[in-house]
Each structure stands twice: as C-alpha cells, then as structure tokens.
Amino acid sequence: MQRKKDDLKGLSDPKQYHDPLLIEGKDANTLKMMLNRMLLIRRVEQQLAIGRRDGLIGGPVHLGVGQEAIAVGISHNLKTTDRVFGGHRSHSHLLALNPDFYRLFAEVLGKETGFSKGMGGSMHLYDKPSGFYGSVPIVAGTVPLAVGAAMAAKLQKEDDIAVAYLGDGAVEEGVVHESFNLAKIQKAPVLFVIENNLFASHMHISLRQPSSVVSRFAIANDIPYKLIDGNDVVDILEASKELINDMRKGAGPALIELVTYRWYGHVDWRDDVDVGVDRSLDDIENWKARDPILRLSQAMIKADLWDVEKEKMLDRKLKSEIQSAWARAMSDPYPTPDTTLKYVYSKNK
Ligand SMILES: Cc1ncc(C[n+]2csc(CCOP(=O)(O)OP(=O)(O)O)c2C)c(N)n1
Ligand SMILES: [Mg+2]
Predict the structure, then answer these.
(1) pLDDT digits over 209-232, tens only?
(2) Which residues fall inside 5 Å of ion ligand 2, going by CB?
(3) Cα angle value 324/69/126 (rounded, 5°)
C-alpha cells in the first residue's frame, strides 16, 4: 500500500525542526536537569537493548530511544501526588518521575528488588510514591483508568491531575474515545499525552488513519489541545505547563500531541527496516539529526551554559553507574513462589 503524504505540517519531516532549541531566558538549572535526565533515560534504554540482545532479559522490551524529551518535559510540571499512567513503552515515563534505574533493571530482569517486585517486567511498571500509578501492555488499557483517577482527584478537591500517555496507534481503540468524552463531560483533570511517533507496530499512521493529526479527536470532544514538536523539550515543558496550570484551576481535560520518532524498531534492539515496513535507514539517520538531546545540548553550548567536556564527563559517570546497577540487579534474587500469592492474588493491600 502506498503511504499518503501526511498532514502534520512538517512536524513529521525529520529534515525540518532540527535546529538547536530556543532557550533564551530559560532557567539554566532546569535545562541542565532536563538534559541530564534525557541522557540518563537514553543510556538506561541502550543498556536494556544490549541486555535483550544478549539474551539476559526474558521478556520483550519496547524502547523509546529518540522520544526522551516527552516524558522529561511533561514530568517537570508534575507533583508526586499526581497520577501518571503509561503503556507498553513506558520506561521513560517512570524514569522521568523516579530515576532509580537499578530498580528498573531489577524489574525487567524479574528480580524481587524491582519496581513491581519482579512480577511485572518491562510492561507492568509501578511506583506510587513518585506518582507512577502503572503501565500495562494492553494498548489504551490505562487511558480510562487515568480518567477515573482524575475524577477521584476532583472529588477529593485536590489540585492533583492525572496523566495518560498513549500512542498514535492507541487512539484506534474505542475506549480512548469514550475516555475523551467522559473526561470532558465530567471536567476531569486529565492530560492526554499523545506520543505520535508515526508508527503502530510496523505500520505508518498514514496507512491506518484518514489524517495523521491525532489531536483532531480533541477538537471533536471540545478539549483544549496543542500539537507540537515532540523532540523539543523546552517547547514541551512550556506548552504542558500552560495546559497543566489551567487543569489545576479546574479547566477540565487537555490533550497534547507530540510528534516524534523511535530509533529502534517496535520491540527490542533491532531497527525494523527489514520487515517490509515503510521505514528506511535514511529516515532513521534523518531523525537522529533531530535528536532531542543533541538539540538541547547544542543550544546550551551556544549559550555558554554547557560544554562538550562536561557532557563527556556526565556520560562517563552515567555509563559507569549504569554498569554497577546492572551488575547488582543481575545478582539479585528472584521472588519466591509464596510472594505470588502475597502480591498478585492476595486480598491484602
Ligand atoms: C489491545 C491491544 N491490541 C493490540 C496489541 C498489540 N500491540 C502492542 S503495541 C501496538 C502498537 C501500539 O502503537 P502506538 O499506540 O502508536 O504506540 P508505540 O508502540 O508507537 O509507542 C500493538 C498493536 C496490544 N498490546 N493490545
Ligand atoms: Mg506509535
């Protein structure tokens, strides 16, 4: 099938929007923290890619390398009492809230020291203290849960919000449209974060939907929305700040669509240019030039807030911490059979 030209006004063309970010007047510490966290997430996921390639991880891992700006930009505006829900590609969503990658490694390796006590693996992550209420592999499965959590927050009269991360493929599930409708009619404070990486598994959005613009569903439900470059962490931070501030004041739901691209294939470490999909090595190379980390780092270097040596040092430090955490998680014990009853099927909380 021939791919149609999409209608995302250049946002899906990797050759556009690849310049350094506009950071004038932005807080230097915030920029450094975001750069640091994006690099951490990238290196952690690259370690997972190696672990999976080498047969050390039992289940599949869905990597979001290239998409780090989204969770980092959004999470900067969140509190630990907010309620965040993810899906099958959610390492970044959790690490943006809690960077404890040792516990993520342990979870993915099925060890009892993991975020979900080794019972969930890569696609069932949970860390309530940081606000991460959970991820599940059922595409769109957590979207109605996020609406429910937002309705609960509203009843509790807190200014907490819920966040539902979902992909461009997830909006093809009917429950997402029920969720948009219910959230709007109930004025539930939930932010729908659409990571439009243009693909669902191996199929491009223009082959699956009549328009590549997912935020058209916000218009249909009278939900305020923004459609922006998902590889521009500064824009993501600012755009989501505005929507979230309004939500905390009672404005009801909002939607933000972020156009981005994943460097790896749908699952595991391969690049998926060999499975009959319309995805070429050239596309991947072009998107690498629009790397969200590189663009922020270049802008900061230009503004004298950062330098290449500092970045090399940070990277070396991260890589060495990641190696130690990986080794520690590898040597941790698996959960014992009795804990299955304790944590999975038990009535105990
Ligand atoms: C209900 C359901 N249908 C199908 C699948 C298989 N599946 C897993 S991921 C995926 C694609 C999801 O695409 P998208 O929402 O765009 O997220 P992305 O993988 O691009 O991050 C599909 C179809 C599933 N896990 N759950
Ligand atoms: Mg997708």
Answers:
(1) 999 999 999 999 999 999 999 999
(2) 167-169, 197, 200
(3) 60
